[in-house]
Amino acid sequence: QKEVEQDPGPLSVPEGAIVSLNCTYSNSAFQYFMWYRQYSRKGPELLMYTYSSGNKEDGRFTAQVDKSSKYISLFIRDSQPSDSATYLCAGVRGVTGGGNKLTFGTGTQLKVEL
Amino acid sequence: NAGVTQTPKFQVLKTGQSMTLQCAQDMNHEYMSWYRQDPGMGLRLIHYSVGAGITDQGEVPNGYNVSRSTTEDFPLRLLSAAPSQTSVYFCASSRQETQYFGPGTRLLVL
After folding, report:
1. Does the structure show a pLDDT above 80 at B98?
2. Chain B contact for A96 (CB, 8 A cutoff)
3. How far is the C-alpha of B34 from the C-alpha of B70, rounded, in Å?
4. Closest Cα to residue A62, out of A85, A35, A43, A81?
5. What Cα–Cα distance (Å) separates residue A86 from each residue in A81, A89, A106, B94?
6. Minimal Cα distance from A101: which residue of B?
7. In chain A, which residue's Cα lies nearest the Cα of B38?
8. B96, pLDDT greater than 90
9. How many CB pairs under 8 A join A and B?
10. Tens digit of each residue's pLDDT (9 = 90 or more) over B16-57
11. How many CA atoms lie within 13 A of B40 on its CB side?
C-alpha cells in the first residue's frame, strides 16, 4: 500500500466551479501536509502546507486535513482555466539535522473548461 | 533570486554512460534533495542533504551518487546509466516548511 494515495483523474470541471481534490494517507508519522501544483513540463510549485486537523485558507484555495480519517483535501473556489494542472499532495516527515522528507501521491490532473 | 536551477534541461544517454545532473540554489538553504518523477509513481526521493558534507539516501537511491561540497550545489551522478533511469529529475531546496523545486531535467536512456 502506498503511503499517500491520490486519484489520478483526469477531473474536468466548468469554469467557476468549486473543485475538490483529495488524498488519503496511511503513515501516522507525517507531521504536516503540502499541496503542489504542477503545470505540464514544469517543476512542482508550492501552494499550501498545513499542520493540524482543520482548514487553512489562502485566496481561492482551502486545504483541509482530517487526521482521524487520514484524509487530505484541497478546495479551489471559482476555478479558472489557468488552474488546469496536476495537483500533488504530500505527507512530510522531518529528518535529523533539519529539512523534511516528502512522500507524494501520484497527482490528480485537473482541467477547467471555458 | 534565481531560486533552484537545474542543467541540462534534456539529455539522451546510452546504456552504460555516466553523467552528472547539476543543481544549484541561491537562497542559502541548508536542505537539498533529488526526486525522480515517473508516470503512475509520483515523485520519489532519491538522495537528500541537510548541509555541506552531509548526504543520505532516500527511497530510491540505487544507481545514483551525490555529494555536497558547498551550500549552493548538489549534483546527482549516474555512474552507469540504465533504461530504468529514464525519468524526469527534480532538485529541491527548503527552509523550514517550504520546499522549492527546480524546473527539472528530462533524461532518456537508450
Report:
1. yes
2. yes
3. 16
4. A35
5. 13, 10, 9, 21
6. B45
7. A106
8. no
9. 70
10. 999 999 999 999 999 999 999 998 888 999 999 999 999 999
11. 0
User: Which DSSP helix (H) or strand (E) runs through B86?
Assistant: none
Cα gap B83→B81, rounded to integer Å: 7
Burial B79-102 (b: 16+ CB within 10 A, else e): eebeeebbbbbbbbbbeeeebbbb
**Polymer length in residues for chain A:** 114
Q: Which residues from B are below 8 Å from A34, CB to CB?
A: 97, 99
For residue A32, the chain B residues in CB contact (below 8 A) are 97
For B97, the closest of A32, A43, A105 (CB atoms) is A32
pLDDT for residue A9? 86
* Joined grid coordinates for residue A34: 503540502
Q: Rounded distance, CA B33 to CA B76, Å?
A: 10
**Predicted confidence (pLDDT) per residue in A3-33, tens digit:** 999 988 899 999 999 999 999 999 999 999 9
- Quickly tell me which residue has 527539472 as its cell: B104
